[in-house]
């Protein structure tokens, strides 16, 4: 029996790192655009008064079409896929895979809760950790069950979230997405009141997320994507993608255009002039969106996997280092949200003054810096800073950090 240890660079699957890096960009973009949007950190009138308002509205529609829900779908899918590969490798080494993975999820849960309470309340790490425990419990499910249950949860889990949100908004004492709440958050930000913001978002998290039951809906949303990812990992479709290029080509040829058309129709229906309302317009738009999201996400994954076999491989390869340091990059993106939108410390306090165009420009610049920094860092170190901490707490020893020290290194117990 060999000692359990983190995955080495030689064992990594490049396609996973590239996919994770691409998804991370989409998650960054949509998180920033959503959080800076109407009735969160801005009012609708503030955004409409911006000189870029017309362009902002058009860009938001494009982002809703191409990125919204697709990026986090791929991100969650990759978690399930990575789970299966990690469990398989741990078992092959003779390790107690269940105990190690429970410890890994517990560490992630702690990081996520701290992130959610003290830095950014839209954290997904705690959600992935909780859903990971369910995935661990159901890992012996048959292929058919993984696909069927995964698809049902992937399509209808989001409906549960929406239903619970509408129900809680109708019965709760506070509408956390009202103009008054947005102005209250801005006032706390302008005052530089960090602890006031922490208390405000803590109350929102309890009232609008935990007590409303939204957490259950989001768990279903994530778990469905985990199941699909675990099934893909079990079949080796990404790990041995070269063997399955004909299948990936068919998925790309069907899912990509179908997903673009379906989601385009959903966005057009959702954005149609309110004066042209026809019966069930919003319901129809939502139903199409539910189907379009997993279809278009599958098309994107297939296109990237195929692209790695052709001329696009060199360009796509730039996303791999950012994907290898996904945890570090994801957490640092929250610092960007805080610096731009809040007035705490050196913060710019631009909430209500930042439209979709400005957000898009900031994300492009910051993510380019993250890509370059990740590439530079991994040229010298084996893991990103937070990736190292996660592994150290999971495996119970300090993995060698410097690349030049890895050969012949011993494990330092912690």
Folded structure, characterized:
The protein is mainly α. The protein has one domain (9-248, 314-401). The chain is 71% helix and 1% strand. It is built from 17 helices and 2 strands. It has a two-stranded antiparallel ribbon. The two termini are 21 Å apart. The model is unreliable at 408-414 (pLDDT under 50).
How would the global form be characterised? Answer: globular
Structural class given helices, strands, pairing? mainly alpha
Strand tally, please? Answer: 2
Q: What is the domain tally? A: 1
* Weakly predicted, low-confidence segments: 408-414
Features of the shown structure:
414 residues, mainly alpha, 17 helices, globular
Structure summarized in a few sentences:
The chain is an all-alpha fold and 414 residues long.
Sequence-ordered SSE layout with sheet pairings:
Blueprint (H helix, E strand, L loop, with lengths): L13 H22 L8 H5 L4 H14 L3 H23 L4 H22 L6 H13 L5 H29 L7 H12 L3 H17 L3 H22 L9 H27 L9 H27 L5 H4 L2 H6 L1 H16 L14 H23 L6 H11 L1 E2 L13 E2 L1
Antiparallel strand pairs: 1-2
């Amino acid at each position: 029996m060999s000692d359990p240890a983190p995955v080495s660079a030689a064992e990594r699957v490049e396609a996973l790192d590239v996919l994770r890096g691409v998804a991370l960009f989409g998650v960054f973009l949509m998180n920033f655009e959503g959080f800076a949007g109407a009735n969160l950190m801005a009012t609708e009138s503030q955004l409409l008064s911006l000189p870029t308002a017309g362009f902002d509205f058009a860009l938001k529609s494009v982002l809703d079409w191409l990125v919204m829900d697709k990026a986090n779908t791929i991100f969650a899918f990759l978690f399930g896929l990575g789970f299966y590969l990690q469990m398989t490798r741990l078992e092959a080494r003779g390790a107690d895979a269940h105990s190690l993975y429970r410890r890994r999820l517990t560490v992630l849960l702690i990081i996520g809760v701290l992130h959610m309470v003290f830095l950014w309340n839209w954290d997904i790490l705690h959600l992935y950790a909780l859903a990971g425990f369910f995935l661990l419990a159901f890992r012996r499910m048959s292929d058919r069950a993984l696909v069927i249950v995964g698809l049902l949860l992937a399509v209808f889990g989001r409906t549960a979230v929406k239903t619970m949100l509408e129900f809680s908004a109708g019965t709760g004492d506070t509408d956390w997405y009202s103009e008054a709440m947005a102005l209250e958050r801005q006032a706390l930000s302008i005052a530089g009141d960090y602890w006031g913001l922490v208390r405000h978002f803590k109350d929102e998290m309890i009232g609008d997320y935990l007590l409303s039951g939204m957490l259950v809906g989001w768990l279903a949303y994530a778990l469905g994507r985990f199941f699909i990812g675990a099934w893909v990992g079990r079949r080796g479709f990404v790990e041995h993608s070269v063997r399955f290029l004909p299948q990936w080509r068919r998925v790309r040829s069907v899912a990509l255009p179908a997903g673009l058309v379906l989601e385009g129709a959903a966005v057009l229906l959702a954005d149609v002039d309110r004066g042209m309302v026809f019966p069930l317009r919003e319901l129809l738009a939502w139903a199409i969106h539910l189907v379009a999201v997993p279809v278009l996400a599958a098309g994107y994954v297939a296109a990237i996997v195929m692209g790695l076999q052709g001329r696009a491989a060199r360009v796509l390869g730039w996303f791999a280092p950012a994907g290898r340091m996904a945890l570090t990059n994801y957490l640092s993106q929250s610092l960007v949200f805080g610096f731009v939108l809040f007035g705490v410390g050196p913060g710019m306090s631009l909430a209500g003054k930042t439209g979709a165009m400005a957000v898009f420009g900031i994300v492009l610049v910051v993510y380019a810096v993250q890509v370059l920094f990740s590439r530079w860092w991994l040229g010298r170190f084996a893991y990103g800073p937070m990736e190292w901490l996660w592994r150290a707490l999971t495996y119970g020893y300090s993995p060698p950090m410097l690349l030049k020290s890895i050969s012949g290194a011993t494990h330092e117990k912690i």
